[in-house]
Amino acid sequence: MTLLEHLEELRQRLIRALIALGIGMALCFYWAKPIFHFLALPIYRLLPAGSKLAFLGITDPFMLYFKTALLAGTFLAFPAILYQFWRFVVPGLYARERRWLGPFIAVGWFFFLLGGAFAYLVAFPYAVQFLLEMGSEFPPVIAADRYLSLLLTIILGLGLMFELPIVIVLLCEIGVVTPGFLMRHFRWAVLIIFIVAAVVTPTQDIFNMSLFALPALLLYLLGVGAAWLFARRKKRARVAAASPA
Predict the structure, then answer these.
(1) How many Å is the maximal CA-CA distance in the chain?
(2) Alpha-carbon span 225 to 244, nearest angstrom
(3) What distance in Å separates the CA atoms of residue 208 and residue 218, rounded to the nearest whole number?
(4) Shortest CA distance to 190 belongs to which of 166, 167, 170, 164?
(5) What is the pLDDT of residues 6-40, one digit of tens each?
(6) For 166-183, what is each residue's pLDDT tens digit?
(7) N or C: which end of the chain has fewer CB within 10 A?
(8) What's the pTM?
(9) Could you give phi then psi for residue 10, rounded to 5 degrees?
(10) Which residue ranges in the chain fall short of pLDDT 70?
């Protein structure tokens, strides 16, 4: 395809991914209140007994539940989003590799859920505890909308960061990079990962930043290792095919 045809294909895939996200949001909006109560548990475990989140503007409750539906809808619609991504890159794959659609969506969704769970259970509670301890001399009056915005950024950020192994394997399979190239430039990967961690992390202390960066580094190495195994298997297959019977 020409460049314009690629751009048109990308536009169509993005529109379909947004439609899937909109459907996911619509389905989750009905349960936005119980979903938010679940998302608020990390802060309620750390606040004094009887404390409640507050809202400051009259439109804040609507925006609060809208963002809640956005977060939950993203996790619900993520398989459809992955499918649209797969359909965009599949022309660069071999025929045998195009059969990986099911595993790609299943593994991609699993890693996205794993990243969200890690954010909700580990990274976010530690970050919130650190921030509350910094302001322990003041009575906490926390806006629910700002709390959810912070949680949404961290959960989606880590969810996407946990997709790193799949992205690396896919880039190696379509020939954009090689496992050797990625390992030779590992120091640049470390720098980029820590920059991204600094953006996503709500605090600037090294402990909380490491909670974001170290799992990403392990995922990077996992992706390079998986890509190397795939490349080795393809090389063996080519050698076997070229060998005389």
Answers:
(1) 79
(2) 31
(3) 16
(4) 164
(5) 788 888 989 999 999 999 999 999 999 999 999 99
(6) 989 888 877 788 888 999
(7) C
(8) 0.86
(9) -60, -40
(10) 1-3, 92-98, 203-205, 237-245
DSSP-derived secondary structure for the chain: --HHHHHHHHHHHHHHHHHHHHHHHHHHHTTHHHHHHHHTHHHHTTSPTT---B--STTHHHHHHHHHHHHHHHHHHHHHHHHHHHHHHGGGS-TTGGGGHHHHHHHHHHHHHHHHHHIIIIIHHHHHHHHHHHTTTS----BHHHHHHHHHHHHHHHHHHTTHHHHHHHHHHTTS--HHHHHHTHHHHHHHHHHHHHHH-SS-SHHHHHHHHHHHHHHHHHHHHHHHHHHHHHHHHHHHHHS--
Amino acid found at 193: I
C-alpha distances out from residue 78 to 27, 67, 163, Å: 14, 16, 12
Q: Which residue has the tokens 């595993």?
A: 103
Apex 225 CA angle, 215 and 188, nearest 5: 60
**Phi/psi at 118 (nearest 5 deg)?**
-60, -40
| Beta-bridge partner residues of 54 | 143
Tokens of 2: 């020409």
Domain ranges of the chain: 1-91+100-159, 163-245
**CA 73, 115, 196, 126: dihedral to nearest 10 degrees?**
110
Q: How many other C-beta atoms lie within 10 A of the C-beta of residue 211?
A: 20
Beta-ladder partners of 197: none
